[in-house]
Amino acid sequence: MKDTLGVLLAGGAGERLFPLTRDRAKPAVPFGGNYRIIDITLSNCINSDLRHVYILTQYKALSLNRHIREGWTSVVAQELGEFIEILPPMQRVSANWYMGTADAVYQNIYSIGSEQPKHVLILSGDHIYKMDYGKMLQHHNDSGADVTLATLPIDPTEVSRFGVVEVARSGEVVGFHEKPKSTDLRSPFNATMVDASMGIYLFNTDVLLPALMKDAEDPASKHDFGHNILPSLLGNYKMYAYNFVDENSKDAHYWRDVGTLDAYYDANMDIASVSPTFNLYDSNWPMRTRVRQYPPAKFVFGEPGRTGMAINSIVSAGCIISGAVVRNSVLSQDVRVNSYSELDSTIVFSHVNIGRHCRIKKAIIDRDVHLPEGTVIGYDQNEDRRNYFVTPSGLTVVTRDYSLYENPVSADFLQPV
Predict the structure, then answer these.
(1) Rounded mean pLDDT of 274-295?
(2) Same domain, 249 and 304
(3) Does 286 fall in a domain?
(4) Which one of 23, 153, 159, 325 is least enclosed by Cβ atoms within 10 Å?
(5) Model's pTM, two decimal places?
């Protein structure tokens, strides 16, 4: 991987994760108690021995930048030329902000060129999966490809949510179909499934850079890899599919786009379950993050009706469960749940205080929220909608200034795509 440069796209607005993305970029949203979403892809990079990574940020990136600076820049050996480096929009070759995934890379074309990589690996910072990019590079070299894109087998009923890739038996890509309503295509690797793009692209640099420059000059282009760059290269260069090899050590492939509140919630609930599909405890594929200095979690009081306990839950450092019961939940650092309260199927971000006699179910509590004694959330959706943000599926999201979010946006943002 020494001749490969990773370019991680982390500048999306994340509108479908609103209000969690009102003040932070989507890749900076907490995940699984200790982590941020971007940590999953960065861990894949380190575990794949990819140690030259640019992170392209744009939207409300302060907390993301701080997280990368304090948790990731020291992971690589800078004295050996390794780096994990943030590249904010510099408008060096354009007066615009990033206008698409391809334009984001094009606007950093000088930074890419200065590293003189043989290959460029385009990644996204908002998916949950485990993948060895070194295996993809080996496949790319063995096939003699100019471009390789990672594909994932999906059920034919899901094609409207994905870019569908038409793959020949040789593994060569012969067509693209962007989110079709239905398709008769089937994967040559699995006759019951369809090959979908994972948004992971490996280019020979001498193919990528001219394509980006040509696309930048096209006023009709959406400046997007899936819509423009890849179709423009099809038939002119060798383009192969790489069928996703999951490092998660489970029977089923695990790849999740956590771009909606419900998908994000479900992925966290899986991690808190007895036998999670996505395994955070695999020492062969460690997940890294910024380590913060908090004391150990503590559970206090054992009186009848006032016992501090957590069942089927993740409880991070700095938490105190004081005479309360936590079930099927994920608690980030520095959370206090006070006596006689009950949490069920809830995600709690850091620095939250939940008062006594609270009852909370199927909710996401954003950081720095202080819930007063007797607060009830998740038991009456009509009442919740008067005070909090509620999705069509009944998931309640509570932010510091939650009273501002009565009917804040249309439900269109919350629909899966």
Answers:
(1) 93
(2) no
(3) no
(4) 23
(5) 0.92
